[in-house]
Each structure stands twice: as C-alpha cells, then as structure tokens.
Amino acid sequence: MKTVLDVKEVTKTYPKAESPSLNKVSFCMSAGEFIGIMGASGSGKTTLLNVLSTIDTPTSGDILINGIHLKDLNDSKAADFRRDNLGFIFQEYFLLDSLTILENISVPLTIMKYSPQRIESMVRSLAERFGIATQLDKYPTELSGGQRQRASAARAIVKQPSILFADEPTGALDSNSATELLKTLKEVNEDLHTTILMVTHDAYAASFANRILIFKDGCILKELIKSDSRHNFYESIVEEISKLDTQRRQQNEH
Ligand SMILES: Nc1ncnc2c1ncn2[C@@H]1O[C@H](COP(=O)(O)OP(=O)(O)OP(=O)(O)O)[C@@H](O)[C@H]1O
C-alpha cells in the first residue's frame, strides 16, 4: 500500500517551553488507512495535527505527504498544498451562512475550476451518501447540528483529499448524530478509500478507526490495531484509556 504520510522523528518545542510538546514522534500512514489519535489533554494531539497539516512547523524532524517534504514549502506553497491535498473537519462546522448547502459543498470544486455540471453531480452523489440530498437548497441555519456537520464533512471530502484531518468531529453532536457521522466517515474510508486521521477523546468515535495511536507527553505511548469487531476494539480502547487514567491519578497522588 502506498505511504501517504511519513512522520520521522518529529519534535515540536514552543518558544519558551521547558519541554517539547511533540518528542521524536515517528509513524507512517498508508493510503486508505483510518487512524485515531487519542491522549489526555495536553498530550500533543493538536500540536501534531497542526504540524501535519502545514499550519505550524516542527522544531526538528521530517514530515512527508505523498513524498513531498513539508519543510520545502514556503507559506504560500503550503497554503496551495493544503487547498489541493488536505481536507479538514473540525468540531465547529465553518459553513458559510450566506451560501446554500449545495454551494457550500461545491466551494472546493469551484476553486479548482471544475465544470458546473461535474460539480453538481459530485456534490449530489456525496450528499446522498451523507443523507443530506434533500437539504441541498437550504441554508446552514435551516439545518440541525448533525446535518451541518455532515455537510461540512462532505465539503472536506468532495475534493478527494490525500488525507482528511478530523479534529474532534463529533465533539458538538448528540450521540445519534455522532454515530451517523462516524458511520458515513467509515463508509467513505472503505468505499472511496479516503485516508482519515481523526483526533478524538472519545473511545466510541475512535473505535471506527482501524488503528489508534495513544499519545502521552508528546510521545506515542501505545498503538492499538483493530483485529476483529468494532465492539471488541472499543472494549480494548476503553481498557487502555482507563489504565492510563489510573496511572495518571496514582502519579498525581504521589
Ligand atoms: N502555542 C503554544 N505555545 C506554548 N505551548 C503550547 C502551545 N500550544 C500548546 N502548547 C502546549 O503543548 C502541550 C500540548 O498541547 P496540545 O494542545 O497539542 O495538546 P492536546 O493533546 O491537543 O490537548 P487537548 O486535548 O486539551 O486539546 C501542552 O502542554 C500545551 O500547554
């Protein structure tokens, strides 16, 4: 399988910080993988996402996406690279309220100068998959939070990014909407081979991934690989996270 992301000994130390927020982190991601990034608050998840997505630069180490060294990109090239290769879903939806849902999802393809017919057919087919096909002529404020988040995910996926970065995508959703979104992300991962890297605190959300990297103090503490059912994977994630919580509590008591 083709390597999409290659992270080599990446360290990030913020100015004036006493210790690094990422400490020699290395891992690879193959095309079509779905990785979950977990870890307690302050373990370095956001810092990792920022350096992987060219929003920030590491202090040392190398990051390659599709063989391209991110350190070779200046600010303007990095912006073009993000636009052309990366997709983002955040806890907030960031839809444009003055555009319809169809227009919102179309934005990346309009920028890429696709023909209107092609744009409409790509958007409609993805909207179908995300269960928002009947909402395309509405404005974001007319949709529920779950529908807005699905529209936001469709907008990120429609341009077929090399990697989709999802930062707590279910954080603001009720449990039904979260499940709907996660199921669709999994489907997109399996059917369209979208490569997904998702940061989450939630073991249930993480169980939709195939591999979990658990961070502690800026390092990868543990890797969990899904071997059978999602339910069993969920149980092992919960077990691992509880173990870490217990250790942390014990350390704090001493
Ligand atoms: N801009 C910054 N300047 C200095 N220190 C920072 C900055 N951003 C993060 N840190 C520090 O880096 C460490 C890792 O932070 P980071 O936000 O990456 O963790 P996180 O795992 O995403 O936490 P959370 O789950 O709370 O979002 C923390 O100790 C944090 O205080």
From TrEMBL:
Coiled coil: none annotated. Residues 5-242 form the ABC transporter domain. InterPro entries: AAA+_ATPase, ABC_transporter-like_ATP-bd, MacB-like_ATP-bd, P-loop_NTPase. One of its GO terms (cellular component) is membrane protein complex. Keywords: ATP-binding, Nucleotide-binding, Transport. Belongs to the ABC transporter superfamily. This is ABC transporter ATP-binding protein. It comes from Anaeromicropila herbilytica.
